[in-house]
């Protein structure tokens, strides 16, 4: 086979492979480029808003998943029966307030999906993060965002659930020591504020609000419905994990 024929065959194979992996992003290319430039440039320095687990990124051994949820509650990849796949055991916890740097924002275009490891949430946007002080050789931390973010504003709103451009140390230092420790360890203590609960367990998937007399109640349900939090007037009253009480 001649070199020219080989090149044509290679390009044809790549085109066919790319055609089988349709783009999963609806954000226009210009908006993606502008957003990536801003988030990896002047806005690159960020602070972790939620204490998060570092786990394997499913089958991609070169990276690590950064998630506020327990591995058994992660819902990024399903098996053939439609059941969520556990990404792997928690390797360590990065506490809220950890300084990070955004190094890349990667959208699931057809080409990107083709290049990603098959056994990974390759149809979702990935935000590449580097922990402050980590060696250059350290695996990047991947924050996975929902695939339906079609506008930069929607992308930023989702990203701000997990990252803050503002140093959170003053906020954390103002909390009682027991609450600070609970947040660092991704645990809960009775009567902690709603913000503190969110910093420890992460943002809930759904929130149900009700009013009983003058008391305002909220029921938070986390992905997979294994974890639930109940607040009264903005304070933690009760929490459940797998049907069992987490706090007295």
Automatic annotation (TrEMBL):
Keywords noted in UniProt: Lipoprotein, Signal
PROSITE patterns xref list: PROKAR_LIPOPROTEIN
Domain of life: Bacteria
Signal peptide: 1-21
Protein name: Putative lipoprotein
Record organism: Myxococcus fulvus (strain ATCC BAA-855 / HW-1)
Lineage: Bacteria, Pseudomonadati, Myxococcota, Myxococcia, Myxococcales
């Amino acid at each position: 086979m001649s070199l020219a024929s080989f090149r044509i065959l290679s390009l044809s194979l790549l085109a066919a492979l790319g055609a089988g992996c349709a783009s999963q992003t609806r954000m226009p290319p210009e908006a993606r480029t502008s957003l990536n430039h801003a988030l990896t440039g002047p806005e690159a320095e960020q602070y972790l808003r939620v204490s998060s687990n570092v786990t394997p990124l499913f089958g991609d051994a070169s990276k690590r998943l950064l998630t506020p949820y327990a591995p058994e509650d992660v819902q990024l990849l399903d098996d053939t029966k439609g059941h969520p796949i556990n990404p792997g055991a928690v390797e360590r916890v990065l506490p809220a307030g950890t300084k990070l740097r955004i190094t890349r924002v990667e959208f699931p275009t057809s080409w990107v999906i083709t290049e990603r490891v098959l056994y990974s949430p390759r149809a979702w946007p990935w935000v590449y993060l580097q922990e402050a002080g980590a060696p250059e050789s350290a695996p990047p931390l991947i924050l996975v965002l929902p695939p339906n973010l079609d506008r930069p504003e929607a992308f930023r709103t989702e990203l701000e659930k997990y990252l803050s451009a503002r140093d959170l140390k003053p906020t954390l230092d103002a909390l009682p020591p027991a609450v600070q420790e609970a947040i660092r360890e991704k645990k809960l203590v009775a009567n902690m504020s709603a913000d503190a609960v969110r910093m420890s367990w992460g943002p809930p998937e759904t929130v149900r609000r009700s009013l009983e007399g003058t008391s305002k109640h909220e029921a938070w349900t986390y992905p997979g419905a294994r974890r639930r939090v109940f607040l009264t007037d903005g304070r933690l009253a009760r929490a459940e994990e797998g049907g069992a009480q987490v706090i007295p």
